[in-house]
Structure formats: structure tokens, C-alpha cells
Amino acid sequence: MKKWLIVLLVLMALFLLTAYIVIPSELTVSANVLIKANADGAYRCLIDENKWEKLFGEKAGLNGFKNNSNTLVMNKKLSDGAEVLIKDNDNEILSTLKILRINKDSSLLNWSASLENRSNPITKIQQYFKGIALKKNITALLDIMKNFLEKQKNVYDITIKKTTVKDTLLVSTKSIFDHYPSIENVYGLFEDLRNYITANGVNETGYPMLNVTSIGSASFSARVAIPINRPVSSNNNIEIKRMVPGNILVTEVKGGPYTVAKAFENLEHFKEDYGFTSPAIPFESLVTNRLKEKDTTNWITKIYYPIY
């Protein structure tokens, strides 16, 4: 019996000695996942506080999120990711979540943390198994992030389609205002175009279009257009525009001016993220008649952004 006890003690001693030698004094835990998403778009999501709950779990205090047995705290925003504090019972582990660019439409999420290992071999073994559990947890979190970030609408808040220009023939006019043009101003310009269309015996083939551009600090240029079915002559105020039947980004939103402005901003992000350039100005297509429908929450707008 004593012989077996001695053997057992020797084996335990060897095991502890091996752990002391093999397990490093600092454990680095790291997990990666490849995502089909642009790195810049993914980064904007990561630093957008409104999306943290979707990425990390149920809200738990200021900048904190509960995920299984862990509480995640967004500690600091970094230029290429974020510093995340992982709390588990009484333990706190500072980790780094980075977004690494692969190409325009794919990125790598890397989540890493370091665990300090003391010289005590038993503590080293405990930390080793804690590192295994941590890697499992952050791997599961990366899978959640991957599922979220690979959906275009989650990243850009709109559904974006890439298509080709259909309405290539437009009748157009513009006017300069010393204020942001009101709905009445815009529809007054549409009325001028419709009178011209009627007088020339042609037909509208699509919704009226609008682009408003700031000129200096106190002036705005409003350009409007309506698609028509065949060419007509121009005059001093009204001209015929022929659009190149090239590629165009399209999205549709429901809401007022703020919603439309945010959609333009997100389309601009998408264009820059994927390296598109624009040969022409973007514009709104006013599906809902703003003069008849006063409730802006019911306004439907299609937004077009020519690209190549």
C-alpha cells in the first residue's frame, strides 16, 4: 500500500513539475473568425453604442453586457477595434478585440487576452483551464458577431441593391434658394416640369427626383427631374438630361427628412467602404406625394447613387 502511495505522490510531483515547466508564466488566449463583411463597416458597428447589445448580449449596467456567465464591459474604443473587460465572478480579464482587413468584402475578427500565471504550479494549472474556458467563450461570442456583421442591413441600417439605371431620359430644372427648400418650393419646381411635359405631349415614366446641395453657408441649389418616355426640346429654364445606363446603388426608406439623410449617409459609407466612385450626383425619388401626405412617417423615398 505504501509503495502505491509513494508512486502516486511521485506521479503527482512529476505532473506538477511538468505543469510548472510547460505552462508559461503568461497565457495568451486568442480566437479568430473570418467574416464576409467590410472592415470599415464592421468597425463602425463595433464602436456604435446602439449596436453593442446585438453584438455582446443583454444590457447589464453602463457599457456592460451579460453573456452566459460573463459580463462584458466596453472599456475603450481603439483605432482598429475595442478594449473589452471580461468579468467572471470576482475575476477581471482585459482583452482586445480587433478587426483586421482581408480585402474589400472580408475581414478577420481577432479576440485576445493575456492571463498572468503565478509560479505556484497548482495556480498555473487552474489558470490553464481558465484559459481554455475563456477561449471557448470568446469563440462563441465571435460566432454571434459574425452572424450579425454578415447581414448588410445590420451594418448599414438599410437594404442596398446594386442595379442598372432604368430611367435614362429626364426633363430637369433647378433653382437657388437662400434657405433649405421647403416641400412647397420643391413641388413648385415639379409643377413647372409637369406643365412643360404636358405642353410637349410626352408622358412621365417614373417618380419625380430631387437633389439638394449646399452652396456656401446660406444658399442651396435644388435640382429636380422627372423621367419621360421620349426626347423633347430644351428651353432657358428646362433641359433634357440623358443618364448613362450604368450601375447604381438603390435603397428604399420610410420616414421623414432625418431618415432620408441617414440613408444617404449610409449609402455614402457603403460606396467608400467598397471603393466605388460616382459619375453623377445622388438623388431622391419621391414615391409619396409630400403635399398630399403630411405625416412624414408615411413618406416613402427611393434613393439612387450612381457608381462605377
Q: Taking strands numbered 1, 2, ... along the chain, how are they ordered across the largest sheet? A: 8-13-15-14-10-11-9-12
Q: Return the CATH class of the largest domain.
A: Alpha Beta
pLDDT < 50 runs, ≥5 residues: none
Question: Rough shape?
Answer: elongated
CATH topology of the largest domain: Multidrug-efflux Transporter 1 Regulator Bmrr, Chain A
Overall tally of structural domains: 2
Round the mean pLDDT to the nearest integer and report it: 89
Distance between the termini: 83 Å
Number of strand segments: 15
Rg over CA atoms, rounded to whole Å, is 30 Å
CATH superfamily of the largest domain: Regulatory factor, effector binding domain
Q: Which short descriptors sum up this protein?
A:
308 residues, alpha+beta, Alpha-D-Glucose-1,6-Bisphosphate, Chain A, domain 4, Multidrug-efflux Transporter 1 Regulator Bmrr, Chain A, eight-stranded antiparallel beta sheet, seven-stranded antiparallel beta sheet, 33% helix, 36% strand
